[in-house]
């Protein structure tokens, strides 16, 4: 024979219950996340955007990037300050000339533009600072043509962008 | 007569819930903001060294006997070598991996004899990949104990036709 249902339990279930969500463990998780993110947060320095098809080489250097003209050199495109130059990299790589006419023209235009501004505003001066973001599989024979051409245009403070090793 | 037990004690049985809801709202706002600005892969730079015209003139006027020599690291697909003027200090054939530790050890020794010298030239073959250049630059720029030759210039290797 089945037991008779408890009268006491019947009474309890009729009580209006207050549902409290226990969020303590979620808060623990959030606290840990916040500490981690705050640690990796940096509010200073310039942020370089790296195109998706470009893998920078890794290095042990500790120097932070400085503002300047950014040249992005991936396996199949050459981008100067966000503008894609209409050049054939394979052709440039195999040519005997060190100078890349399209790049020289574009960079000289930028130098003229800087000089025009600095003529009006003495706070702006042309430092010749440039950052090369090159793909790790670019051969030196192509790299030197980019560096030589930008040096000829007046960008003499050249630096190479790399991923920092942990 | 004994004191009557206090009524207040009974209250300790209550469970007090902290109201964490405001914290939750704060975190919900902070976490997406920090996630968006977080940098997981830090980008650094390596400065290339180009001697200026003034420096070249200065060096002519005051010749520093101790550091008045040319250091050059030559990298070809098959060989890694270090020269001080015409004297070969280090030579290693690249079978699978470059012996960069050996190169660094040789440079550390050289740095001890002429601490003022800072510049070095990398003579590179056209087919050397960018990552390899950076690896060599890392090993000539610094070692665990300090700085070696931070003023690095890149140059094209002149093919010897002898």
How helical, in percent, are the residues of chain A?
Answer: 25-40%
Oligomerization state of this entry? Answer: heterodimer
Number of helices of chain A: 5
User: Major sheet of chain B: order of its strands?
Assistant: 4-3-2-5-8
Radius of gyration of chain A: 30 Å
Order of helices and strands of chain A: HHEEEEHHEHE
**Inertia-based shape of chain A:** elongated
What does the largest sheet of chain A look like?
Answer: 6 strands, mixed
Share of helical residues of chain B: 25-40%
Which regions of chain A contain 5 or more consecutive residues with pLDDT less than 50? Answer: none
How many E strands of chain B?
A: 8
The pLDDT mean of chain B sits at: 80
Strand percentage of chain B: 15-25%
Strand content of chain A: 15-25%
Using a beta-carbon cutoff below 8 angstroms, give the protein chain pair with the largest interface and the number of residues from each chain. A-B, 50 and 40 residues
Order of strands in the sheet with most strands of chain A: 1-6-5-2-3-4
Q: How large is the radius of gyration of chain B?
A: 31 Å
Q: What integer is the average pLDDT of chain A? A: 84
Task: Give me the strand/helix succession of chain B.
Answer: HEHEEEHEHEEE
| First and last CA, distance of chain B | 119 Å
């Amino acid at each position: 024979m089945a037991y008779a249902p408890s009268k006491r339990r019947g009474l309890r279930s009729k009580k209006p219950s207050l549902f409290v969500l226990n969020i303590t463990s979620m808060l623990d998780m959030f606290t840990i996340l916040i500490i981690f993110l705050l640690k990796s947060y940096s509010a200073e320095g310039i942020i370089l955007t790296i195109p998706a098809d470009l893998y920078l080489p890794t290095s042990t250097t500790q120097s932070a990037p400085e503002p300047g003209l950014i040249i992005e050199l991936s396996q199949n495109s050459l981008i100067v300050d966000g503008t894609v130059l209409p050049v054939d990299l394979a052709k440039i790589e195999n040519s005997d000339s060190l100078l890349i006419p399209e790049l020289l023209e574009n960079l000289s235009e930028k130098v003229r533009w800087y000089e025009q501004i600095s003529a009006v505003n003495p706070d702006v001066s042309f430092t010749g600072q440039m950052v090369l973001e090159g793909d790790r599989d670019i051969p030196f024979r192509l790299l030197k043509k980019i560096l030589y051409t930008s040096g000829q245009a007046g960008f003499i403070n050249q630096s190479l962008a790399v991923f920092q090793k942990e | 007569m004994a004191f009557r037990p206090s009524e207040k004690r009974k209250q300790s049985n209550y469970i007090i819930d902290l109201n964490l809801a405001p914290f939750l709202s704060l975190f919900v706002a902070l976490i997406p903001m920090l996630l968006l600005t977080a940098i997981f892969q830090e980008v650094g730079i390596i400065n290339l060294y180009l001697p200026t015209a003034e420096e070249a003139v200065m060096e002519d006027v005051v010749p520093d006997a101790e550091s008045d020599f040319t250091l050059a690291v030559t990298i070809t697909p098959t060989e890694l070598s270090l020269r001080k003027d015409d004297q070969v200090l280090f030579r290693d054939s690249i079978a699978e991996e470059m012996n960069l530790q050996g190169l660094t050890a040789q440079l550390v020794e050289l740095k001890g004899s002429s601490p003022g010298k800072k510049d070095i030239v990398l003579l590179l073959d056209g087919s050397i990949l960018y990552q390899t250049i950076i690896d060599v630059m890392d090993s000539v720029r610094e070692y665990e104990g300090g700085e070696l030759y931070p003023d690095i210039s890149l140059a094209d290797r002149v093919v010897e036709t002898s």
